[in-house]
Amino acid sequence: MSDQDITGVAATSFTDEETQILKILVDMIIPASDEYSLPGAADAVIFADILATAEARHGPVCAALSALDELARESQDNGFTALDLDQRDGLVVEFRRLHPAAADLLATITVQCYYRDDRVMRALDMETRPPFPAGFTVDQGDWSLLNPVRGRPEFYRKAP
Amino acid sequence: MTEQPIDVLIIGAGASGAAMAWSLAETRMRIVCLEQGDMMKPANYPSAGRDWEARSQAEFSISPNQRQLPVDYPIAEEGSPIKVANFNGVGGGTVLYAGHFPRFHPSDFHVKSLDGVADDWPVDYATLAPHYAENDRMMGVAGLPGDPAYPGDNAKRMPPLPLGKTGEALAKGFNKLNWHWWPSDTAITTEPYDGRDKCINLGACLSGCAQGAKASTDITYWPHAMRAGVELRTRCRVREITVDEDGMATGVIYYDGDGVEHALQAHVVVLACNGVGTPRILLNSKSIAFPDGLANSSGLVGKNLMFHPYASIMGVFDEQLDGYKGPNKCIRSQEFYETDTTRDFVRGYTLEIVRGFGPVSTAISGLQRNKIPWGAGHHRAFRSLFNHVAGMVAICEDLPEEHNRVTLDPDLKDSDGIPAPRINYTLSQNSLKMMEHAIARGSEVLRAAGAHDIFTQAPISYGGWHLMGTARMGTDPARSVVNEWGRSHDVKNLFVIDGSIFVTSAGVNPTRTIQALALYIAEQMKQRLANLFD
């Protein structure tokens, strides 16, 4: 969404630590791209949307972030935010393997917010608006393709 | 304070309840419909917001267990590989359906006679034909006459939905194989119709049509029924149907939105709550006279649940397709619809083309299938799929089996404390073989259309859109719950008019037939008013 759309988003109830873990993770899911001139999911506007959206599922999101952080502490003796890039990469692979539903939840929230950002939509040649009320145009297509079927005899079974 | 008894009480304001209410309104009887959900506000549908895909996976999810709205009831469904899809609100399932609107075929009513399985229906295509036509007029149907897979009909249709890039690509594939395809009959307006504007290709049919082009009954039947005097009460959840010492229904006990219990007496009670909600109420309506639940002397209430196992067959195309633009449906194939004795299964299926997906659905599907990675490769992989994925679903005929059933869960209850339904369902060997065949043929047509990287799912786990068979109709009281015109064999002022009464499921979406049956039953009731309970 645009900056204007998220103005006034209330502060979330996530702790600073949870917020930091989530920000690092969403950046790992969708990083910025120079090739396509795209922001990453940790971009300030997009991340604010992600946080606000995650708030609606606060319990499961906190549980997912906690699972990720606990995994870091078990395997690396350090919280997730303290790991270096290589350590995080390896840990996230393990997180997705051990906690697929938690990983899916966080990824789903991330893409839900990422793909409604103005900059991302424009880069995909999408209009930055909801479907309604303007709608879209769909080509009629080539109806002459139906001609071979029109010539086919009826083939349904008759009732006894 | 107890209300004065009303003439007809309809439970459920969805596809069939709306049709019944409208049809009976001309009798000038006092008719009340109780609906546990709310009146819909199309301006609030997801497609009116930028977050439309997210909302379609949340409060507009097809799964009541995912929505968990106050108007929803939970369903214990861990015993089924196919999960229930429904919607509780005025319009019922038609609020979220795709609007794919085929009729049954003549052969679908004669499964036993033709193929030696299941049972024949006590009604046939010819009996329902005028009611199909009447329903088409009320709902508004777009399509094209002349389909060789069907008998000719005189239905007035609006022009079909556009083929678009997706329909054109798939049509070429079918033509290469010399297989049947035809533009889908859809309950979607392609020109202004009965006060509704035409489809503008919002692409979000499955989460409610903000344009009002898709025929959900809150905007088709209900305005007409209410103008004719039918009273529609929302946020009224029925707990049970009450009976007197003669075994006749006397009305219902229901809870309002505040959880306050009410009794409403009626001379006639009509159940229109779908193939799960209807047996739930009947089984919850136990009494001394009906210890196993109401209308259940056959023991068949809740049994013979049919879903339509769905297989999904999708592929990636090099060219850009329609993606998120346009109604989900455009064309269908019934090349493999009728029984072919050379196959290892009986009956058949319809292939419904799926036009495409929005960006969020594309991303989630790609992530789940490991076709879109986390990290730097995300963007390139996403672009290779966005607006490039299309395909079809196969809607397979499900045959009735008594062990597939709806019962009451001993522990799970809704917010009013009413026991929730439990689903136990297994896929038959016939269904498994049919889905396997559909995946093979669907993959073939996708390859012929130029697709690659084909991916499939069978069954679609959250694809229990069609709920049928759990209060089947028939002439034998030992083998059916209602008679050939929808009246309970056991309770002579109790009617069932939803998909529960289906004897078999056919291999097409059921809504058009559910509504034609509801209109047929309403007609039977009107013709027999003088001796309705004899």
Explain how this protein is built.
- The complex is a heterodimer of chains A (160) and B (534).
- Chain A contains eight helices and no strands.
- With 160 residues, chain A is an all-alpha fold.
- Chain A has one domain.
- Chain A is elongated, with a radius of gyration of 23 Å.
- Chain A starts with a helix and ends in a 10-residue tail after the last helix.
- The mean pLDDT of chain B is 97.
- Chain B has one domain: FAD/NAD(P)-binding domain (3-Layer(bba) Sandwich), CATH 3.50.50.
- In chain B, strands 1, 2, 5, 6, 7, 8 and 16 form a seven-stranded mixed β-sheet that branches. A six-stranded antiparallel β-sheet of chain B has the order 4-10-11-12-9-15, covered by helices on one side. In chain B, strands 3-14-13 form a three-stranded mixed β-sheet.
- Chain B is globular and about 70 Å long.
- Chain B is α/β, with parallel strands linked by helices and 534 residues long.
- At the A-B interface, helix 5, helix 6 and helix 8 of A face helix 2, helix 6, strand 4, helix 9 and helix 10 of B.
